[in-house]
Q: What sequence folds into this?
């Protein structure tokens, strides 16, 4: 959202940091996938940003995009969010047999390595005050690009999750 995410920071003694912003409730929605290539053990991060809430049809479009970039069978491990259970998503699964779906338990963000992508990006974006949705979109996209380009950061997201990874 355009409301700043505040994080603890340093300042000279007696000079409390102040982040000035306009109170605006515009938001940016992001959908992402963290991928692991079974042969090369190469990690990938795919994402899409929208200036509206993501719906089931958007999830199906993102999955189509993802399958266009990945070869062979794909195991999709994701949470129990309602958006993942809608008709457009179920129809997509029915048409794409190379996609095997496994689900995390009901509420288990600690198991999901994608949650650690958000933790990393939010830390870097904290205490900023974008002036509009376009500036926020640029900032989020730049941060996700930075993570996407770093095998080290992507591996840290996997190791930070409480799942055991090969």
A:
């Amino acid at each position: 959202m355009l409301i700043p995410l505040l994080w603890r920071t340093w300042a000279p003694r007696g000079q409390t940091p102040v982040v000035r912003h306009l109170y605006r409730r515009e938001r940016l929605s992001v959908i992402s996938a963290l991928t692991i290539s079974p042969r090369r053990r190469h990690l990938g991060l795919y994402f899409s940003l929208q200036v509206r809430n993501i719906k089931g049809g958007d999830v199906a479009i993102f999955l189509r995009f993802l399958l266009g970039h990945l070869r062979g069978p794909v195991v999709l491990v994701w949470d129990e969010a309602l958006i993942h259970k809608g008709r457009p998503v179920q129809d997509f699964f029915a048409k794409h047999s190379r996609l095997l779906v496994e689900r995390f338990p009901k509420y288990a963000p600690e198991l999901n390595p994608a949650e650690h992508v958000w933790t990393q990006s939010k830390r870097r974006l904290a205490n900023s005050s974008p002036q509009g949705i376009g500036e926020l979109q640029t900032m989020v996209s730049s941060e996700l690009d930075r993570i996407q380009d770093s095998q080290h950061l992507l591996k840290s997201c996997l190791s930070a999750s409480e799942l055991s990874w090969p």
Q: What stands out?
A: The domain at 29-125+133-160 is CATH 3.30.420.10 (Nucleotidyltransferase; domain 5). The mean pLDDT is 85. The radius of gyration is 18 Å.
